[in-house]
Each structure stands twice: as structure tokens, then as C-alpha cells.
Amino acid sequence: GPLTVLVETGPWTRYLELSPVGSVDSEQVRFNQFFKLGALHVDRDRGQVVDARALGRLCGEHELRIAGEQISTDQAAKRRAFVGEDTVSPSLEEITGDSLKWLADRPHLHGMTQVHGGRIMDGFGILAL
Fold first, then answer.
1. Any idea what DSSP says for residue 25?
2. Which pick of 29, 95, 99, 125 has the fewest CB atoms within 10 Å?
């Protein structure tokens, strides 16, 4: 059956329903590709891994795809992070294999997708001084 995963990305919490990849559609985006390419990452310094074995299965070679997604927004966290009121987080469910292939073909971008936004703002502040 489907597996439900909660993924926190800034002020957004994603409720993802993961299902096995069907043999019919080989173009389905595998959930583990988001981790391999840096589109999602596990922040072990600021987060807590409750079930390391399950996390390993999600990030590893299991053939799972996103079958459904609901996104909730913590408005207070959004204000604290200075995220605009009209800013919406893109849906992981809508990301295509083509867009991930584009990212896969540019390995120099993989690490940059995992940089904490606050560190980027610190860098801009230092440059401004």
C-alpha cells in the first residue's frame, strides 16, 4: 500500500503519499532522485532522524514515486523567514523527469541546492559590508 511521509521544507510541510513505481511508466520520477540530486536533503545537524532504517529505504534504491501531495504552510514561520505572503512552494509531485535530468546533467549544481538560505543571506551581508 501507499506510504505517507512528512517532509518539512522551511515554513512548508509536505504530506507525501509514496507508491511503488509502476512497471508501465518508466518515466516516473523516483523519490530517491530528489535526494541524489540535492532537491531534498536531510539536515542531520538541525533535524532528528527518528527511524534511520526507514530513511535509508526512502533515500536508497527503493522504487517509490510521489502519488499524492498536500502542502501546509506555517504562516508565522513564513513571516520569521521573511518569505513573502504570496510565495508558494513548488509541488514536488509536479516535477518531471526532464527537469531532474536537467539537474542530473549539471553535477556542479547539486551541492548548491542544499545550501541553507540563511547562509546565502549572510554571504550577501558580508559582501555588502
1. -
2. 125
Is residue 32 within 8 Å of residue 58, measured between CB atoms? yes
User: What DSSP letter does each residue of 44-109 carry, written as one string?
Assistant: TTTS--S-HHHHHHHHTT--EEEEEEEEEE-HHHHHHTT--TT--PPPSTT--HHHHHHHHT-GGG
Model confidence pLDDT, tens digit, residues 69-115: 999 988 888 888 777 877 777 778 887 778 778 877 887 776 665 55
- Do the strands 3-9 and 12-20 form a parallel or antiparallel pair, or are they unpaired? antiparallel
Tell me how far apart the alpha carbons of residues 129 and 77 are, in angstroms, rounded to a whole number. Answer: 28
Q: Which three cell numbers stand for residue 21?
A: 513505481
Cell numbers for 74: 506555517
Per the rule left: phi > 0, alpha: psi between -120 and 50, beta: everything else, 82 is: left
Q: Which of 66, 45, 43 is nearest to 55 (CA)?
A: 43
Give the amino acid at 50.
Answer: V
The owner of cell 540530486 is: 37
Q: What Rg value do the Cα atoms of the chain yield, rounded?
A: 16
Task: For residue 18, give the C-alpha cell.
Answer: 509514496
